[in-house]
Amino acid sequence: MPPAAEEGEQGQISPRAENALFALALALTLALLTYRVADFPIYFFCDEATPVNLAADLIENGFRASDGVLFPPYFQNVDKYSLSLNVYVHVLPVALFGRSVVVARVTSALIALLGAAAAGLALRAGFRSCLWWTAPLVLAAMPAFLLHGRTAFETVMSTAFLAVFLWAYLHYRLGAPRFLLLALAAGAATFYAYANGQGIAVFLAVALLLADAPYHARTLRARPGLAASAALLALLLAAPYVRFRVLHPNAVEVHLKTLESAVTHSRRPASERVRTYLGNLVQGLSPTYWFLPNEVDLERHRMKGHGHAPAWLLPFAAAALVASLRRIRSPGSRTLLLAVPAVVFSPAIAGIEITRVLAMVVPIALLSVLGMDLLAGLARRLLPWRGTTRATAAVAIAGLAGWCTWLLGDALGNGPSWFPNAYGLYSLQYGQRQVFGAIRKELLADPDVRVGLSPNWTNNGDAFKAFFLEPDLAGRVSFLDLEGMRASHAAPPEDALVVLMQVEREELARDPRFQLDPPSLVLPYPDGRPGFAFLRMRLTEVGKAAMVKTEAERALPVDGTVQIGGEEVAVRYSRLDMGAIQELFDGEPETLVRTADADPFLVELAFLAPRRCAGVVVRLWWTCYDVTVTALPAGGGAPLTVRREVRAVDPDPVLTVRLPSAVPLEKLRLEISNHEGDRHVHVREVELLPAPAPEGR
User: Fold this and answer.
1) Is residue 639 part of a domain?
2) Residue 344 to residues 50, 133, 340, 399: CA-CA distances in angstroms?
3) Are the beta carbons of 416 and 526 closer than 8 angstroms?
């Protein structure tokens, strides 16, 4: 028997009344997720803009990706393929309403509402819960769901589809076999909606296949038509992922590399990686992480003073967890219990963050409602009068609605100033809508103006250019390299309108090399302090003289030595502003060096003794490079020169350049040019290929 109630305990509340309460709960949840949706969260993150941009590009390009693939199974999100179903979900809203913060977030909120509805239906189908209709409001009562449900993060969709899967699977498992097809589709949607949804879907598929194997065998053997349909549907649902792996065989490896996880770091001892993974699992399952305020997650992913779930839900969830463990032989309890480790199984690889484990709100909500059922059953036994059930329902709907309304009011009223010193890059990243809205007005007002924008306050600024600006306007906006400006004493193009963070404006105003005009516009932070300044700036005479001197110095290569295979080698190379030259030859493909302001990147090796070399392997950091390798034979002779182009889709392309012959070399020279015109050239690793041993040895 499920831990909710005995049969018939719904008592005096009729099914029609329950459905009405469910509709009311859904309406309130929709209002909580969409009211002033652009105002909270106060940021609009690049991970919200990118799927919408990709959906718009997909429409414009006849449903082909940038590489020409028709109906691509996955899309590239900067340096990894991590977007799939969520891009297609945004296609229709973008086609109908265009790109806007409200459209993007409301689209996501509607999917979240679908998940909230499914959570309630799962409680009714799998547990005969008397308070099943409260599930949407229990979800909305959790700060993690309320905050992220008002964003367009893809984790929201995966969370919602997990709830749909649990509802459909419980129907199937408890006597409605036709729901197996819906369970398969919802499981696939969980898988394709978000990268960590893959782990959830795979874990549950394997666990439920094994746990319910006798039921599956008995049911599908008795219904061969259903078995054939399920097998065909499973193949169709798996086909996009198989196609993706064929199109991009290295994409998963690259994705794991970008996570920089201690668990996947090949040079760490296996025992250390196992300990790290187990520690992450414990953290993801810890009640203190979920029910108490924490500082583990970034400010943009939490509500100040609140845990990811309210502490008052913990007793209900804990009581239902104990009851479910006692009834683990029940299909409903077993399915719900398996959903808990499924959520943290994959995120524990990279580290626990609320976006990665947001789907945990679904089992927490289900357990919490079941715990409320236990309390309601106790109330009926202690107060056996006809109005107890109705009174319980009234208290539940009023209490949840009141809490949720207060929580949203706290977010809208106080949220903008919760973290007053955290509006920048490594926290809230506030200002996308405000800054780009003001830039758009400036561009429309003056067709000749060009804008130079500081990129140091937000991730992936190009995503916001495409989201907020039409292509002709976006072409007049560039991002400033303020670090490079200071290092090379350069200034933005003459007459460009510059947009700086207030702290950057103050720093440049103190620099004698730059002259800043009074700002024409200042955008405030939510707490009232100046946030962004629109102004014009130029070099002073001091700055111009320093620029001339620096340009001459930066053009000169640097001489040094490196260790290659235990041998000391003299090297001449272009100046770097990231990494050290030895990191090119350290055997660590995770390290990265970058030229300060040199294209091509020169690396010239002079061997102390002639060295036989068959060629080089160059690990690059982005996709478009021209590589020239020139070998100077020892004792003279014509140079051996080989040129190669890299136009790869892989964000970490590996280029092997073989020399025409493996003669002893005196020098080896590499020139690596950035084909996209960036003066910074990024390289991860250079490896010298040993020459084959001479015949006869």
Assistant:
1) yes
2) 25, 27, 7, 30
3) yes
Full domain range(s) for residue 496: 432-546
pLDDT tens-digit map of 430-453: 999 999 999 999 999 999 999 999
Q: Domain end: 546, 577, 607, which one?
A: 546
Asked if 353 and 347 count as a contact pair (C-beta separation under 8 A), the reply is yes
Grouping H, G, I as helix, E, B as strand and the rest as coil, residue 501 is strand
130 within domain boundaries = yes
Measure the CA–CA gap between 592 and 535, rounded to whole angstroms: 35
In the prediction, which pLDDT does 384 show?
Answer: 78
- Total count of domains within the chain: 3
Confidence of residue 171 (pLDDT cuts 50, 70, 90): very high
Asked whether 117 and 24 are in contact (CB, 8 A), the reply is: no
- Angstrom distance (rounded) from CA 365 to CA 142: 9
Tokens 């996947």 belong to which residue?
Answer: 264
Report the alpha-carbon distance of residue 453 to residue 466 in Å, rounded.
14
Cα(299)–Cα(147) distance, rounded to whole angstroms?
Answer: 12
pTM for the full predicted model:
0.85
- In whole angstroms, give the CA distance from residue 102 to residue 100: 5
Task: Mark whether 366 and 499 lie in a shared domain.
Answer: no
Give pLDDT tens digits for 530-539.
999 999 998 8
Instruction: Determine the Cα–Cα distance for residues 290 and 443; give it in Å rounded to an integer.
Output: 46
In whole angstroms, what is the distance from residue 323 CA to residue 329 CA?
12
> Do 538 and 562 belong to one domain?
no
* Residue in the block written with tokens 């090399």: 513
The number of residues in the chain equals 697
Q: Would you say residue 696 lies in a domain? A: no
